[in-house]
Amino acid sequence: MSEExxxxxxxxxxxxxxxxxxxxxxxxPLTDGQAVLEASRCLYCFDxxxxxxxxxxxxxxxxxxxxxxxNVRGAAETILRSNPLGGFCARDCxxxxxxxxxxxxxxxQGSPVKIGRLQRHAVDRLMASADNQIFERAPATGRRxxxxxxxxxxxxxxxxxxxxxxxxxxxxxxxxxxxxNEYGVAAYKTAGGYAQREVEWLLGLGGIRLQCGWTLAxxxxxxxxxxxxxxxFLGLGLADAHELGVPGETLAGVEDxxxxxxxxxxxxxxxxxxxxxxxxxxxxxxxxxxxxxxSKLLGxxxxxxxxxxxxxxxxxxxxxxxxxxxxxxRILHWLAPVEVMGEGGSVRAVRFAxxxxxAGRLVPAGEECILExxxxxxxxxxxxxxxxxxxxxxxxRDGRIAVDASGRTNVPGVWAGGDCIxxxxxxxxxxxxxxxxxxxxxxxxxxxxxxPWPV
Length: 455
What we know:
- The protein has 455 residues and is of the alpha/beta class.
- It has helices spanning 16-22, 32-39, 49-53, 60-68, 72-82, 86-92, 99-102, 104-109, 115-128, 152-163, 180-183, 194-203, 219-228, 257-266, 286-297, 318-326, 388-391, 428-447, and strands at 9-10, 144-148, 167-172, 208-212, 231-234, 240-241, 254-256, 275-276, 278-282, 302-306, 329-332, 335-343, 346-358, 361-372, 375-378, 382-383, 396-397, 400-401, 414-416.
- It has three domains: 32-128, Alpha-helical ferredoxin (Fumarate Reductase Iron-sulfur Protein, Chain B, domain 2); 144-239 and 384-447, 3-Layer(bba) Sandwich (FAD/NAD(P)-binding domain), CATH 3.50.50.60; 242-381, FAD/NAD(P)-binding domain, CATH 3.50.50.60.
- The chain has 18 helices and 19 strands.
- Strands 4-3-2-5-19 form a five-stranded parallel beta sheet, sandwiched between helices. Strands 7-15-9-10-11 form a five-stranded parallel beta sheet.
- Strand 10 (302-306), helix 16 (318-326) and strand 11 (329-332) form a beta-alpha-beta unit.
- The N and C termini lie far apart (63 Å).
- 45% of the residues are buried.
């Protein structure tokens, strides 16, 4: 292998100061004055479309009015009563395609009220205060619930059940709670360890016992949880990454994008992390953008994000796509990988076939190109992965757990939510909504002990 084609993967590409600046909060918080000024732009619509666009139905005009009046604590309470992970969602939620897209200021003037930043302003101010626990638990009910998965869905469900007076045990396979909020979202979106600070606040309510390092490993274990608890919620997320399914995928340098992000998020010194000089990210969603941008921020010279369809079909929002481009990421469309090419056991390039749409289906256009790379990051989605779930008799749909409108599975006494269910949208705010939905249904049933579990 010639010298110029050796994989160029190394750490320390930048100065410590550059790493600190690059991975700092990419959206600065609003000052008090800026927040009041922005809040004054809200029209406080009676039939506010922003509320309907929010999966957790936060009363947006109400919390914004409180900010305008100087009642920031009241604004935070309004937010957190609807979404206990409102601080994280304010950082990660694609508000540009949800509440801000339908904001009347946007539809009439093309400049929405900055709802996400105002939401963050209110919650951050509360979290930074000495007395930040605004909720109290209801009287103890004597009922017990188990929640498997301490990601957004599980945290939201556990918090709501604890508020209702039930005792909750929260299980997670990782060393920390938070799920993708802690392990799968770009560092520049959650600077300052915010995900863990939010977890600490949620657990501060009381009534929730967290057990990390716990894995659902067998049918007997599952059945024991059902026997020992009055209700069971599954917020497992998606454990396994999809494969490219092309030759050369096992070459050194081909990695899962979520694992790349997780490693960076847990790193004490980001400068010690090796990064390729030429990075290819395959995928078109938020994870692909996070992996691509962070590769650039760690010092990669060239980063290409490659997607098999067109820009309109990308799951990443236009805001995220623009963010990637402004950070120096090149986005290429209509290219599907057909071979990962290597030398000496390491990746050196990927061969792509150009695609086109014919009658709604992707077909090869008859052209190919080769893009060189030292590292290839796969961001083409995840799947359920845990075989225990089918052994437990849980019905699946499209490879994920099937639930009804209340989040109930087909197994009596078992609910599910978040990315692991068939309607999961891979958004934190959707997962929170699923957890809260299930908690409401569980609470109603637990309070009526004479009601048998639905079959």
